[in-house]
Every structure is written in structure tokens, then in C-alpha cells.
Fold:
Amino acid sequence: MAKKILIVDDEFHIRLLLNRSLRSFRAFDVDILFAEDGDEAWELSKTAKPDLVFLDVMMPKLSGFDICEKIKSDPNLKDIYVIFLTAKGQEFDKDMGFKVGADDYVTKPFDPDDIVKKTEDVLGIKVANNDTTK
Structure:
């Protein structure tokens, strides 16, 4: 069964960067899905049941905090690993992220190699080449 990553960000260039950073996981039967607002993220979370979600906080419709709380309070989805990937770097925001159930919290700007490493750890997959700059 294919593993799934859901990338949720309203900024196209962030979705593109994450897609490029994580493309080597496709060779390991990992599907990469995208959502650009909170409603779409919630629907994809319910229907696709991804293994890992990279989630922005500030988005149209539903915030990342709302999505994370919904995921973690749903018995069918609570095991989804949620990593906030956001510009909201204040301690208050980080505390809120963990309060609603986030498994990790990363602030922008981020190092794509760190994202690959976190993905490897969560999915249990070691990709051959971690150089995401090529």
C-alpha cells in the first residue's frame, strides 16, 4: 500500500519547493498530495488518510491549527503525523501547535534537507540521495 504525504500551504512556491524536495520518495511508492486551503486539506485528510501532513498555519477557510485539531480528534485520523511548517515562529504559536496535537513544528525558512530527513524518519524510508539542491 502506497504511503502518502499531504502538503498543505496556500503559497504555490512553498508547495513547489516541498514537492521538489520530496520527489525522491516517489521511487518508494509514496504519493504526494497537495491542498491550498483548509477545507481542501480537511477533505483530503479524510479521504486519502495520508501518513504525513506538512501543514501551514495561516491559510484561507480553516487555519492549520483547526485542521490539526480535527485530524487529531478523529479516531480514524489521529495517527497521521502532522508537522507544522509555518512562518509563525513565536513561542505562543509553537505552544498552540503542540496543544492542538502537532507532532513537530518547523518554522520558515526551512532547510529542504531537514524536511527530507524528517520525512525519512516518519515514513521509515531512507532515500538514496539527500541532496535536494540539484
Remarks:
- The longest strand covers residues 3-8.
- Helices lie at 12-22, 38-48, 64-73, 91-99, 112-123.
- The first helix runs from residue 12 to 22.
- The chain has one domain: 3-122.
